[in-house]
Specification:
By secondary structure, this protein is α+β, with helices and mostly antiparallel strands. Helices cover 26% and strands 26% of the residues. It has twelve helices and 24 strands. It is globular, with a radius of gyration of 24 Å.
């Protein structure tokens, strides 16, 4: 049987949140995209639960934030609770900052929502072709393209696709990463976990004390949807095929609960912890779990993958449209791999801190202390915000022009975030009007933010072919942005500051030089 053939600019492998976000972003850039997903449909399992404030900023840019929020839990579910069993009262609790209430550092609010609610919204955000039930089985790199061999898992038909670039977002067990022989570093497989999706009436214990996660000594409980449904996850038992899942869930609810769980689905999976040694192999780039598998505690993994896509897609668009040089893609790994390592360290720390809570509770009960006593949590109040990691990421690469040639300051550790306009950092959120943020001025273009647009307009006549818009920065924000009257900030399409001039541009070619340097392009 002859093999069919097709061509595209970018082949995306994997139809989870990262691949779907990349598809939506690239389509907005006018890039031809084909996405293939080996499963026949979107995942029916809840999987990831937390869309953090940075991801919601990206979805706000795509016009998706309101719809995602409407299908998600109310903000009061942005909380974790610790109990001996779900039937018992809290012995500790903590809010998820940036989820349970707005934070002044962002115009967006994160949400608790299940991945099977998020993915349909991302799928509907673009019209680019998606082929479900199609698996990648081979890759061959050529001088100016990648040839991928795909197979329809139902019919067995094969298709050869020639793509300018391949974006691998095919998960922790990435076929693409394995075909390329890219190794990983880190702990690796941490253990087997089972997720049980079930129905039960638990309102009498939870309705008045809502949470996104209830941690117990017998596994964790998560409400799935605002209208109902639950999941329970715990270490996979030795003989899962013979496990009494309804019985296990009911016992974890509590011996006095008198509730029988109606089990709907059971999924076994492995919790991984690693970072790929390389994020790029020629014209093939890794993103999301294919590049870094992050333990689930703290909800950092999927969100890190969404940030990967946001960092990468403007680069791909620039190279494909000709206003960026191919070497711009090298800075994707330079910028995102250190973030992946930091995110992995934070997730491991999260897991260790949660174990401390459980150990303290066990010691408390064994020492005959009052069972109703509360546990002092081993972290600061803002720990589960982790805004320093979520909003405080700083990039140091050839795609950033630093002040006086010095590198950006290291990003803050997980909890603390201090807004700054140092090049390499995310542009801080500042209200330009009552309903419009600085972040709302960014899109499929570079943005020049300046209190004096007239002073910079003559620079823009020499900025072809780069997409560029000038936005007025209100004078009340000059000091906050560390600028003077004629200063300016050049913001990359991913919202990170590419260059800063505190006052007058040094020459009439300043802006052109900056864009040429950042995009690694050859001036026409």
């Amino acid at each position: 049987m002859p093999v069919a053939s097709a061509e595209t600019d970018v082949l995306i492998v994997g139809g989870g949140p990262v691949g779907l976000t990349a598809r939506a972003l690239l389509e907005r850039w006018g890039v031809r995209v084909l996405l293939v997903e080996k499963h026949r449909e979107l995942s029916p399992f809840p999987r990831s639960r937390l869309v953090n404030v940075r991801s919601m900023e990206i979805f706000r840019q795509l016009g998706l934030a309101a719809g995602i929020t409407a299908a998600a839990f109310a903000p009061e579910y942005g909380r974790i609770r610790f109990r001996d069993t779900l039937y018992d009262r809290d012995f500790a609790t903590e809010a998820m900052v940036g989820i349970n209430a707005p934070v002044p550092e962002s115009p967006a609010l994160g949400v608790v929502t299940s991945q099977d609610r998020l993915e349909p919204a991302l799928l509907a955000a673009a019209d680019a072709q998606v082929r479900f039930g199609v698996e990648l089985i081979g890759l061959a790199e050529e001088t100016d393209s990648v040839v991928a061999l795909l197979v329809d898992r139902h019919s067995g038909d094969e298709t050869r696709v020639r793509a300018r670039y391949v974006l691998a977002a095919d998960g922790a067990n990435s076929t693409v990463r394995q075909l390329l022989g890219i190794d990983t570093t880190g702990p690796g497989a941490l253990g087997g976990v089972t997720t049980v999706v079930f129905d039960a009436d638990l309102n009498r214990w939870c309705a008045r004390q809502p949470a996104g996660v209830y941690f117990t000594a017998h596994g964790s409980f998560l409400p799935l949807y605002p209208e109902g449904g639950w999941s329970w996850f715990a270490p996979t038992p030795e003989d899962p095929a013979r496990a009494d899942w309804p019985g296990l869930v009911s016992r974890a609810l509590g011996p006095s609960a008198e509730v029988r769980a109606e089990v709907l689905r059971v999924q076994h999976w492995v919790m991984n912890a690693f970072v790929a040694e390389r994020f790029r192999h020629g014209r093939i780039l890794l993103a999301g779990d294919a590049a870094h598998a992050i333990p689930i505690i703290g909800g950092l993994g999927m969100n890190a993958g969404v940030a990967d896509a946001h960092n990468l897609c403007w680069r791909l668009a620039g190279v494909l449209h000709g206003w960026a040089g191919p070497s711009l893609l090298e800075s994707y790994e330079t910028e995102r791999q250190p973030v992946a390592h930091q995110t992995l360290r934070q997730a491991v720390a999260n897991t260790q801190l949660l174990l401390q809570v459980q150990n303290r509770r066990r010691d408390q009960l064994q020492s005959a202390e009052a069972a109703a006593a509360r546990i002092e949590l081993p972290w600061s109040k803002g720990f589960f915000a982790q805004l320093g990691l979520v909003l405080g990421v700083a990039y140091h690469s050839d795609a950033v022009l630093t002040d006086n040639g010095t590198p950006p300051e290291p990003p803050a550790s997980g909890t603390d975030y201090v807004p700054t306009t140092e090049p390499g950092h995310r542009m801080p959120h500042l209200w330009l009007t009552p309903n419009s943020s600085t972040l709302d001025t960014f899109g499929e273009w570079f943005t020049l933010l300046t209190p004096d647009p007239t002073h910079w307009e003559r620079q823009t006549t020499a900025t072809t072919p780069w997409p560029l818009r000038i936005e007025t920065l209100p004078h009340e924000h000059i000091d906050l942005c560390d600028l003077r009257r004629h200063g300016a900030l050049l913001i990359r399409p991913d919202g990170h500051i590419g260059a800063r001039w505190r006052d007058h541009p040094p020459s009439d070619a300043t802006l052109r030089h900056a864009l040429t340097t950042i995009t690694r392009s050859t001036p026409p």
